[in-house]
Amino acid sequence: MNYYELVFTVVDPEGFVKDLLIASLSEIGFDTFEDTESGFKAYIQAEQFNEHLVSEQLSDYKDQFNFSYETNLIPHKNWNEVWENNFEPVIVADKLYIRATFHPARAEFPMEIVIDPKMAFGTGHHETTYLMSEFLLQTEVEGKKVLDMGCGSGILAILASKLGAEDLLAVDIDPICVSSSIENAQLNEVDNMKTGLGDIDQVNDTGFDLILANINRNILLNHMSHYAAMLADEGELIMSGFYETPDLAIIQEEAAKYDLKYISHYTRNNWVAAKFVK
Ligand SMILES: C[S@@+](CC[C@H](N)C(=O)[O-])C[C@H]1O[C@@H](n2cnc3c(N)ncnc32)[C@H](O)[C@@H]1O
What we know:
Blueprint: E1 3-11, H1 17-27, E2 32-36, E3 39-45, H2 51-64, E4 66-74, H3 76-86, E5 90-92, E6 96-100, E7 111-115, H4 127-137, E8 145-149, H5 155-162, E9 167-172, H6 175-187, E10 193-197, E11 208-214, H7 217-230, E12 231-243, H8 244-257, E13 261-268, E14 271-277
Parallel strand pairs: 6-7, 8-9, 8-11, 9-10, 11-12
Antiparallel strand pairs: 1-3, 1-4, 2-3, 5-6, 12-14, 13-14
The structure holds S-adenosylmethionine.
Keywords: Cytoplasm, Methyltransferase, Ribonucleoprotein, Ribosomal protein, S-adenosyl-L-methionine, Transferase
GO molecular function, one term: protein-lysine N-methyltransferase activity
Subcellular location: Cytoplasm
């Protein structure tokens, strides 16, 4: 799958313009962001990219702030390099050490996940992966049936397996993510993970005790009724990929329509992971 990369140069003395732009782009499907010295880069799957929509979405900000961007189509090869060049180990809540194959192991951490970064999202660096991992570490997972929707590198499904999940399904719309999840599961000796390729309507299973979904606000809103139907009674839903302001209230409102009760949320740089229960 090819991606579009928008390279932003932002004059941002107060430090909030970048966040506004990222929030706005995530509303129209951009799902990966990377800091640069002069601004940031935003990525979207090529088939979801609509140049006109981007300029419409940013038009209000154009008059108020000083920024510019250029658009590049990037094939997988370059995407691969983006991750490999930027991957540093991540430590979550002093418990979980996430490293690449080329980093040495560190025995002082009780849990470790080894990720071959490749081109799939999910190395623990992004706030949302970090927040989801942090939430998972505090969730009762032992013996549960778990769905990881939008699995990326498979990192959350792998963590769920290490925490004792019995039945695991990892699904992504991008075939590269599915194969990356399979490879990473093998690297971590996870042998109970099933995978699926496609969107939510391709998932035929129900009765999940736990659904993990780190995607983006609009896709989560579209998926909400499915998640509610696929959860077992008292099943938990942990979602991320959206902002505290203004997205959390919108997500809570949609969840309430399907009797999903809000429990709590964590934030990091305005990104959120929120837990709901059926
Ligand atoms: C933000 S990444 C999360 C990856 C990983 N779960 C993590 O927490 O780091 C979102 C993933 O969702 C996938 N995705 C986007 N839209 C989707 C959809 N409609 N159905 C399933 N997966 C989707 C993307 O391909 C991407 O791998």
